[in-house]
Amino acid sequence: MLSTLESHINHTVSVTIADGNRITIDDLVDLYRDFAKTPIPISGRLSVGDNEREKCLRIDWKVRDMDRLEATKHTTHHSIKLSKDGMTVKHITTVGQPLDVTNDLAITSRAKGSHYMAVVRKGAKDPESGKTKQWLEIWDKTTKVKSIDLDSVEEHSTLILDPLLSNILWSPNGKQLLYVAEYKPPKPQSYYKKVNKTLENSGKELDSRDSRGQEFVYREDWGECFDGISHTVIGILDVDKDFKIQTIEKSGYSLGQPFWIGNGDQIGFVGWAEEPRRLGITYCPNRLSFIFTMNLKTEDSVPQLICGTENSSIRNPRPLTDGTGFVYLENKSGSTHRQASRLLRYSFELKTSEILIDTNGVREIIDTESGLKYGKISALFVEEITENCFTSDGKFLILNCFTELQLVLCLFDLKTKQLIPIEFPLPSLQLLDLNDNVLIAVGSALNTKPNIFVGKLNYSDNTKPLVEWKEMETNSSDLLNDISVDNFYIPSEDPNKLLTAILVSPKAVESQPTATVIMPHGGPHSRYANTYMINPSLLAKIGLKTLLVNYRGSIGVDEDYVNDLIGHVGDNDVRDVVHCIKYLSDKSLIDSSKLVLWGGSHGGFLVTHLSGQYAHMDFKACVAHNPVVDISSKFDGTDIPDWGYVEAFGNVKPFSFDTPLDPNLLRVMFEKSPINWISKVKVPTLMMLGKRDRRVSWTQGLKYYRILKARGVKTRCHVYDDNHGLQKVDVNGDYCVNICLWILENLS
């Protein structure tokens, strides 16, 4: 996609950056390359070493290869040495050279006892369907023992690898592999295609006739990022039975997140309700779902419902180490897409669930020497529970928790129900794996590249820290050393709620009022944290500050804070962003005469709102990435039609599957939308759209662009062959460079 830039611009032409210096287009492209080649840890796995004081560690890293214009993956192997008492990490040694594993789609740990390992590998692309072939490989300690072409198996279709649905686990005896796959329906045939004579002679012609005329039947799927995934099943591969595959299906439910129970005679799994309609599931842990179990040793056994109600959404069941039950997360189905989660524990003996952490905690505002802040965590905001999450004695659970400005690792006591944050020198810490109380985590900040940290949990000695961290040595550059980051807690219109914001600045001008990009987050029930991101760092390198704004409705505070926005989008959130701008401007940290807007999705909704509602603020440029500009017309072209109801009407008008929008509802939605203010817009506006976006149809941004163009407002529109996130390597490279050029052009 960088060729788009090359065809219009002489690379030797220079542009003025915010600090007054000039750089060439090539310099800007090279700057993006420097950020793109930063390796990002995406998974880590600990295994037992030669003795009890040694661990083996495998880390998988993702890199954007700007020469091949694709995402690549490589793995590194390391040896971890513990102290003599086994309580601290003494050394982390890299073993061998990095190995490219781009074609490895998934890999399991070795099964206990049998030492089998499973690898899902990417094969060639099918010229007809365009789908990439999948191979499932089974390895023992010394060699590959089986390769299975997953496209040719009759039991199911594509293996599901997204962790939202998937889990690939060996049974306790190490002989059976549990996984998730898409159901394989009969292959549809045209009425006008002759029936295969071989099939006819074999007596299978009826199967063929059953699927005739079914080629163009609509198959609903799970939306954005899950194209073609409609009805998932559980698969079990048995190594001892000549790699026979058994599938478990339940009509009306897509099954996923399976787990073994006890000695492997039973399994459990989550089932997402498919009726009356599949709504988009990505970033939406509020879809109606339940937990089922099934006995594998009983013939004609069927899935049995054990957890869930008509208004609950359940995910991430994790078996307790003593086998007595499991913990899991629960949200309300419907309502906001992201919200505080309950943590519950299910008992097999009692056949009931106990609430460990509820959603009704209220975050206290405390007065500190540096001003008002939020007190200790009172509600649980988590994306998922990691697979290996329990301490070796089974008494504690490790959770990745979102707070208002950080990603924090917490130790949860299953007996006292106390949630204890684990201290860490950086503001962002995310657990990758836990083995024998050794933690593998990724730490980062907006001005610190991600790296691996290793530590040993110590909760028996109160005189020592919970974890003493050891950072893995890397060849990381000093690309971010000249960037500063400041957090702000800002009083809002509501005395019981604080707004939060992060100002990312070039160190040379951190205390001066300079040109600033205002960047509200999407969602709207998401949040910005002080964790590594390319975009603010890239802007800082061209002399620009970035103000990352968390408005009321963001996650990380408490449930009441999240619900404060519903029914008030286009009003409360917009005013909160303006309030943060004025707060920083009054402190002479940003220049109110040189403000730029940049936002995606609901962030795009906000920046287009600001450019219309607050046109008098004279913003210099606006960048909108797959924005919602008209809630009323978005309704029928999205995988999340419930979003419009919840955000526009709150709890006053619940979403209904069987009732169309009436003119009054459409009017309210329109009035809450940026399109209602488009006649006021004068700011130069760049639209960045993905034509494969199923969350916010690209026609939303296209409509806005066409109206601005007709009104004589300076505008441009880029349309990419990508989905909502615009994260393909070639796409994002073009996206970032063109946005920087647009901002610099209009600031000057």
Automatic annotation (TrEMBL):
Residues spanning the signal sequence: none
Full protein name: acylaminoacyl-peptidase
Domain Peptidase S9 prolyl oligopeptidase catalytic: 532-746
GO molecular function annotations of the record: omega peptidase activity; serine-type endopeptidase activity
Family: Belongs to the peptidase S9C family.
Cellular component aspect of the GO annotation: cytoplasm
Keyword line: Cytoplasm, Hydrolase
Gene Ontology BP annotations: proteolysis
Enzyme class: hydrolase
Subunit structure: Homotetramer.
PANTHER family from the UniProt entry: ACYLAMINO-ACID-RELEASING ENZYME (PTHR42776:SF4), SERINE PEPTIDASE S9 FAMILY MEMBER (PTHR42776)
Domain (Acylamino-acid-releasing enzyme N-terminal): residue spans on this chain: 57-478
EC number: 3.4.19.1
Record localization: Cytoplasm
Membrane spanning residue stretches: none
